[in-house]
Amino acid sequence: MSESKPESKPEPGEKPKSLRRPPSGDNRRGAIAGLVIAIVILGIGWWLARDLTSASKMQDCLMSGRTNCNVIEPAR
């Protein structure tokens, strides 16, 4: 009469069996998605900072009483 031993406890001197599967490519997919999202957020933040800076400069010019606050780009 032999009884089966539970698989959760290895015998002394025996290595425990690993139940984990080897890492797959799904881990990279999540990391790449996170990187893309971070780049998009940084791009939107950069654009927003530039837009707010130019609006602030325009408001400063108008609040000082000037009437010619349009940005004039130099000829190339």
TrEMBL record:
Name of the protein this chain belongs to: Uncharacterized protein
Q: Which UniProt keywords apply?
A: Membrane, Transmembrane, Transmembrane helix
Determine if Transmembrane is one of this entry's keywords: yes
Q: Where do the record's region annotations for Disordered lie?
A: 1-27
Task: Output compositional bias ranges, type Basic and acidic residues.
Answer: 1-17
The residue ranges crossing the membrane are 30-49
Q: Organism's domain of life?
A: Bacteria
